[in-house]
Amino acid sequence: MISVEEALARCFDLVAVLPTETVALRHAAERVMAVPAVARRDQPPFAASAMDGYAVAGDPVAGDSFDVIGEAGAGHAFHGAVGAGQAVRIFTGAPVPQGATRVVIQEDVTREGARITLKPDADTGTHIRPKGQDFRAGATIAPRLLRPNDLALLAAMNVAEVQVTRRPVVAIIATGDELVMPGEDPAPDQIIASNSFALAAMVEAAGGEARLLPIARDTEAELFTVLSMAGSCDLIVTIGGASVGDHDLVGRVAESMGLARAFYKIAMRPGKPLMAGRLRGVPMLGLPGNPVSSIVCGHLFLLPMMRAMLGLGAAGPEVRQALLAEALPANGPRAHYMRARLSGDRIAPFERQDSALITILTEADALLVRPVSAPPAAAGDVVDYIAL
Length: 388
Ligand SMILES: Nc1nc2c(c(=O)[nH]1)N[C@H]1C(S)=C(S)[C@@H](COP(=O)(O)OP(=O)(O)OC[C@H]3O[C@@H](n4cnc5c(N)ncnc54)[C@H](O)[C@@H]3O)O[C@H]1N2
Ligand code: MOO
What we know:
CATH architecture of the largest domain: 3-Layer(aba) Sandwich
Strand content: 25-35%
Number of helices: 7
Number of domains: 4
Protein name: Molybdopterin molybdenumtransferase
Radius of gyration: 31 Å
Largest sheet: 6 strands, mixed
Low-confidence stretches: none
Number of strands: 26
CATH topology of the largest domain: Molybdenum Cofactor Biosythetic Enzyme, Chain A
Keywords: Magnesium, Metal-binding, Molybdenum, Molybdenum cofactor biosynthesis, Transferase
Mean pLDDT: 97
Catalytic activity: adenylyl-molybdopterin + molybdate = Mo-molybdopterin + AMP + H(+)
Strand order of the largest sheet: 7-4-6-5-9-8
Structural class: alpha/beta
CATH superfamily of the largest domain: MoaB/Mog-like domain
GO cellular component, one term: cytosol
Organism: Paragemmobacter straminiformis
Shape: elongated
Bound molecules: ligand LQZAQKY5, molybdate ion
């Protein structure tokens, strides 16, 4: 059995950054921008008024009067210059007319007809946003996962289309004679396929496209057929049939189809029978069937592989620290990812850790990580965890 770290490194070796595609800015949210975007203009493209008031020249003082000679609005420049003793009525966002050095806010003047007079104690700020104060033409935004604020910046830069990494298409294949889909009528010895729904949602939340393929029954022929349907995907994820039982056929069938195995079995709990490799050119991750095992392996391996394919780098899940709420015994030869709950800076593992308990998983907000052969831990000890 190899370590979790070694297994993850081999998973990263199986994947490569996907090619890019061009999308309209409107559809770029949560996509990974693959190449730097370049500002096509200054922002603001002109010195702009930050307030509603009057643009004046020089350094006026209380009691000074000006003739209002015109108006500048947002989108409507005043085409002329402001000289001594002159003012231009101006509104927020309007270009500051030539010659003006300051915008006096309208609250600070009295106006009679076309003449304004500066009140005592007027605000002395210029209320002018210099040209290019936000960014200059040619400024670049580095590749990143695009959040809503990034879209505003790209739009302001007049970037209408973005080059993003293609979404990884992930085939999800549940296997087993015992499985039926939610809403179907299970026989007494059957259960409902559940893991696939969590994994598909995880794939989609991470920026991929999940394809739920038909459940493969426990025959070599059916597994062959369903695995063959996944040939055009970027990643094949199977669920179940990974262990040592007579009906655990995934590895055998995949190998008969030419699977180049990267590893099988890791020192991890839950998730020991995890398998990975390359099947006819497509990276493949064989998850154990137990619901918690498959979903935990989804967090530890599937999502990092997807992030690597999206160009977000080859890194495992972020590991954080908390204080153990209660003592724990020594750990055995497999790293234990315990379902746990955080409360302030404390973390408490659930008492029941059976990898079939979906209810506990839904109550957990963290995986408490107990390393291989960790000695007993006391309440208050610092431990690692992965947020769920
Ligand atoms: N003799 C041994 N038996 C087992 C070992 C072992 O080392 N020696 N390992 C155990 C561990 S650990 C795990 S994990 C499981 C993994 O087995 P498989 O990957 O072969 O999974 P299955 O046997 O197909 O299923 C296990 C369990 O999960 C249920 N299942 C499967 N798929 C789904 C699904 N899509 N949705 C919901 N539930 C699913 C299935 O019905 C079984 O109950 O093996 C242990 N055995
Ligand atoms: O390793 Mo299995 O995934 O513990 O239940």
